[in-house]
């Protein structure tokens, strides 16, 4: 479990094939300062498990499903990544509840720099649009952010906007985002649960109607 408060910007130093997945080695001095084998570290929003480590690096395995769902699919040495250690149970929840389970990827459409912040518009998959609300929470590349604007429901090319303060621009990889940059998306866990429950309610209602019709015949 994470909070979306990035602790450091690390870098991928090696990528090795591992079955149908890959094994990554990352430079992460702060993240490994108190890490142990089996600990979880968020890598640009993707929850990975430490399988080996040194004084300033760790190695993690990434399975095919994770590669297919995230921007790690084309990861290469030199890529900068946002890193966050799993939150302690007694710690402050500075962002929002983030699982490190990516729902999909979006594409930066536009970056509008301002005097004090930058507004970033991100195109999102159609199936994720219902889970994103104005003033709601979303994790983008592992960064806990507040949605500042969303597209209308009928829009065939849905998008969301976030406003990035100077601290976020400096402390995360989003400071270097530009049009065309792919990003990892994790929607609010509460929205996902509500969507799932409503799906079952709709199915149950339809089944109940069928039973009523058969019983009256």
TrEMBL record:
Enzyme class: transferase
Keyword set, alphabetical order: Repeat, Riboflavin biosynthesis, Transferase
Record has Nucleus as a keyword: no
This protein's pathway: Cofactor biosynthesis; riboflavin biosynthesis; riboflavin from 2-hydroxy-3-oxobutyl phosphate and 5-amino-6-(D-ribitylamino)uracil: step 2/2
Keyword Repeat (UniProt): yes
Family matches, as Pfam families: Lum_binding
Superkingdom of origin organism: Bacteria
Catalysed reaction equations from the record: 2 6,7-dimethyl-8-(1-D-ribityl)lumazine + H(+) = 5-amino-6-(D-ribitylamino)uracil + riboflavin
UniProt-listed InterPro entries: ATP_synth_asu-like_sf (IPR023366), Lumazine-bd (IPR001783), Lumazine-bd_dom (IPR026017), Riboflavin_synthase-like_b-brl (IPR017938)
GO biological process, one term: riboflavin biosynthetic process
Domain Lumazine-binding: 1-96, 97-198
Enzyme Commission code: 2.5.1.9
Sample GO molecular function, one term: riboflavin synthase activity
Repeat (Lumazine-binding) residue spans along the chain: 1-96, 97-198
Record function comment: Catalyzes the dismutation of two molecules of 6,7-dimethyl-8-ribityllumazine, resulting in the formation of riboflavin and 5-amino-6-(D-ribitylamino)uracil.
Name of the protein in its database record: Riboflavin synthase
């Amino acid at each position: 479990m994470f909070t979306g408060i990035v602790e450091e910007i690390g870098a991928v130093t090696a990528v090795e094939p591992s079955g149908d997945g890959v094994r990554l080695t990352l430079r992460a001095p702060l993240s490994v300062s108190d890490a142990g084998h089996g600990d979880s570290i968020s890598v640009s929003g993707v929850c990975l498990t430490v399988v080996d480590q040194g004084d300033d690096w760790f190695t993690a395995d990434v399975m095919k499903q994770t590669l297919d769902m995230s921007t790690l699919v084309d990861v290469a040495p030199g890529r900068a990544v946002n890193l966050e250690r799993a939150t302690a149970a007694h710690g402050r929840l500075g962002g929002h509840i983030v699982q490190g389970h990516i729902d999909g990827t979006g594409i930066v459409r536009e970056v509008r720099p301002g005097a004090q912040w930058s507004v970033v518009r991100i195109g999102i998959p159609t199936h994720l649009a219902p889970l994103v609300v104005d003033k709601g929470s979303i994790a983008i590349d592992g960064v806990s952010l507040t949605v500042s604007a969303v597209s209308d429901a009928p829009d065939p090319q849905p998008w969301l906007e976030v406003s990035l303060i100077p601290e976020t621009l400096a402390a995360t990889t989003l400071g270097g985002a530009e049009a065309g940059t792919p990003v990892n998306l994790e929607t609010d866990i509460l929205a996902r649960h509500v969507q799932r429950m409503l799906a079952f309610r709709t199915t149950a209602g339809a089944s109940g109607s069928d039973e009523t019709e058969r019983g009256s015949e």
